[in-house]
Structure formats: C-alpha cells, structure tokens
Amino acid sequence: MAFPELLDRVGGLGRFQVLQVVALVTPILWVTSQNMLENFSAAVPRHRCWVPLLDNSTAQASAGNLGPDALLAISIPPGPAEQPHQCRRFRQPQWQLMEPNTTATNWSDADTEPCEDGWVYDHSTFLSTIVTTWDLVCDSQALKPMAQSIYLAGILIGAAVCGHASDRLGRRRVLTWSYLQVAVCGTTAAFIPIFPLYCLFRFLVAFAVAGVMMNSASLMMEWTSARARPLMMTLNALGFSFGHVLTGSVAYGVRNWRMLQLVVSAPFFLYFVHSWWLPESARWLLTVGKVDQGLKELQRVAAINRKKAEGDTLTVEVLRSAMQEELSGNQTRASLGTLLHTPGLRLRTFISMLCWFSFGFTFYGLALNLQALGSNIFLLQMLVGVVDLPMKIGSLLLLKCLGRRLCQASSLVLPGFCILANILVPREMEALGSSLAVLGLGSLGAAFTCATIFSSELFPTVLRMTAVGLCQIATRGGAILGPLVLLLSGYGFWLPLLVFGVVSVLSGLAALLLPETKNLPLPDTIQDIQKQSVKKVTHDTASQCILMSTRL
C-alpha cells in the first residue's frame, strides 16, 4: 500500500486539509437543516373548523353581544381534554347551550359534520407550514408523516445510487452534482403549489443529500493521513451537531415554511460553485488507473501545503512504480457482488450495516420521544445538537485510546443499557429518566462518529463508497422503522424501550467481531484486505509460539 507514503510526501495534514475540511463541513450544517426541516415546516398548529359565527363578519353581526368563547361553544363541540374539536363542527349553532342550566355533556346527540369549509389555524408559533397550506389534518393527517417517509426513502435510494456512482465516476464529480441538485430542487420546493410535487422535489433533495454526506466524508478520509483521520471525521460529525443548533436558530427567526425552505437551500448554489476548487481523490484516481490525473492532483495539493519541491519530484513513472500492486489489483473489476462473495469483506459488510442500522433505528426512536420532555420545538432542536457536541469530542479521545473496535462497541452498548435501565425507572422519577435518555442520545452521537471512521477504514478504495452506500441504506431503513416501534407502547410502555435497548446492545457486541484498524493505512484493493488478514493470523500464530516456548 504505497499511497500513504505518497500522501506524506505532499502533506497528509497541512494547509490543504484545513481548507478542505472548512469547505466540506460547512455544507454539512445546512444538510442537517434539510434533514430536520420538517420538524418546523410540517409542524401541526392548533386548529378548528371554520364556522360562520366566528369567521364571517356578516354572521357575527347577528350574534348579538356574545363573546368569542360563547360563539365557539355553540359552534364547535368539545374534543379531547375539553378543547374545541379539531375535525368536527355543529351543523347548526346550538343556542340552547347558552341557557343557564344546559351543559355540553350530551353534545354527541347533536348533529355534527366534518369541516366542510376548511380550518382556522393558530398562527402564534408558525405563520405557515405545509400542514396549513394543504390542510394536512383530520382525514388527511396521514399525508404529513408520508412526506417525511418519502424524504427518508430518497436518502435510502440516493445512498445506493450515489455510492456506486462515486466508485465509478469519482467522489468530487458526484459531490458537485449533488450540491447543484439540492440547490435547484430545494429552491423549487419552496414555490411548489401542490403537495404531490412538493413530495417529489423533497425526494430529489434527499437523494442528493445522501451524495453530499457520503462523498464529503470520503474526500476527507482519502486526503488525510492515518493519524489525523479521527480528527477530521470528528470535525465532520460535529458539523451535524452544529447543524441541529443552526436549524433551531434559523427556524426560530423564519416562521414561514416557504421562506425557511428557501433559506436552507440557497447556500448550496454557493457550495456548487466552490466545489469546482476541490481536488478529486488522488487515491481513487490512482486506484482506477488514472495516473496522469492523480499526479496533477498530488502536485496541486503539494503546492497548497507548501511542498512544491516534493510534488515536482513525482512523475507518472514514480507513481506507476509506487502503486504497481494497486494498479495490477485493479485489473479485477470490483462490484457489489465482491462485497458479498469475498469472505473477509462479507463479514465486514454485514456487521457494519448492522451497526449503522442500529444507530438510525435507535436514534430516531429516541428523538421522537424527546417531545415528552416538554420543551418548545426550537429549544428541543438545539438541545439535540448541544448534547451531541461533548460526546462526539469525547469519542475522538476514545478512538485514539481504545481503538476503533472497542469505541464502536461501547458507543452502542452504553445507550442500549441506558434505554433498558429506563424501563426500571419509576414514572415519578422524571429527572432520572430524562437524564438516562439524554445520555443515551449523546452516546449515539459518539456511535455515529465511530461508525463514520470505522466503516471507511474497513473497505478498500475500489469499493469504499459502495460499502458506505450500503451502510447509509441500513441507517435510513432503521430511521424508517424506529418510529414505528413506538406503536408497541399500546401493549406496554416498556416494549419499545426493550426493542431499542436489545438491538443497540446486540449490534455493539457484534462490532467486537470486526478487525481493528487503528493507525493502519487505508486499504486500496481487495488484495490489501487479504494481506491485513494474513498479517493478523501470522501475528497471532507468532504470539502463540512465543507463549509456548516461554512455558517450556
């Protein structure tokens, strides 16, 4: 594996890497806003049926001196918690309810009807949302979660397509297109007049968001030396944490969903322009045999890192000689089937997908339960990011001390135990239950950081993005299934917690079966993976021999 030596010559951690991480992490903040957008753009405000006595000035004049509360009582029946019903109204005003000895206990005997003339919404928190624009309430309330599911499906499909495309076309090319697609489709979604088209353009945004997330991480990994990879990927993960804080802050200031959609999409036009400055991954270029282009990118990075003299010593012949094994190994075309049919890669693929599935499954399940904390929606969104920050920074230290495997395992087992412990916490001890939930959520943030680094180091360059795409698919599959598990609470409040906890613990234990990759150079070919396995077996055998001779 000669590329690490080439990277050290041009600079594996220098001025270029600093500029690159700024250029790639800044868009991640707005990617998080796209992912979390419908917490605000699809918020459901308080609402009731439109009724003439309250909402028609001519009819109000015939109501005499009755106040708004009295008019509401005779126009709309009470719903749950004695609040005005959100989906039914009286066919005719129930004037008898104004009589002193009359109560509304028998309102169901009165003739009611659905909200034939539409709804009146409370605009005190949001000026407009997609719910108020297209009346996604009552009989149409299922359309709101459907929009979020379509978005998650877009990321799932985008991960599969963009991962494969990146291994074929290059990381930077797919990233540039993804920026443009998010910008155009996100901006278009802000002006869409009908709900089905809105869902379509949000799907296209999600499709491209998958390309942004995967290729940003891959470019940082492949342009950074082994010792600096944990730092770079932790910075990448922190972009998501700060993105939660940014999303809550922007949504607090922009209460109109169309303007909010526009605000979080417009920056991607700028990112599309600046992405042309980003170099393609030289590691990928050399691995697929594009030596001339790889040389140009290496020399360009050397100049930025103020190592132009070292870059000028590189030639096509030097690269071909240094990368001879990788170039010859590339003659065998790698594909998705290679991941599934190669014994060493197959185990890595399945366990990595399990870890990513567990993260998405448990995180979204817990995030949905955070609403029980009673915070307002803006503060809640920022709280998610604030909790994430210290855990992800701590994971950087653990990655260096414990290694990838133990860090990945512990960051999944710990939230599992926190969730399972919550089953035993009495309901009156809310502070303890909330603390365990916050600790579990923060640990999942660390699990995301570990998984991002670990999964990128486990797979060779020729298949790295394909493998990462599969992991992203597993994550989004978990994200879709996680909230559905909450339906089990109808059979017992502890059932969803049991499922989340067991899945998290089992995936953490499974991570112990993966090989350690701490301080190892990134593998470029399948042969590199096989050599790592051979070295491990040889090392273990040698250790056993030493132990046996010591006993003698």
Could you walk me through the main structural features you see in this protein, from its secondary elements to its overall organization?
With 552 residues, the chain is mainly α. 69% of the residues lie in helices and 2% in strands. It is built from 26 helices and four strands. It has helices spanning 3-10, 15-36, 38-41, 52-55, 57-61, 68-75, 130-134, 143-169, 171-189, 195-222, 229-253, 257-265, 267-274, 282-287, 291-304, 308-312, 316-322, 324-329, 336-341, 343-369, 377-401, 404-424, 430-458, 464-485, 494-510, 526-551; strands at 47-49, 88-90, 112-114, 119-121. The protein has a two-stranded antiparallel sheet. α2 (15-36) runs antiparallel to α10 (195-222), α20 (343-369) packs antiparallel against α25 (494-510) and α21 packs across α22 (404-424). The longest helix is centred in the last third of the chain and has 29 residues, at 430-458. The protein is elongated, with a radius of gyration of 28 Å. The two termini are 38 Å apart.
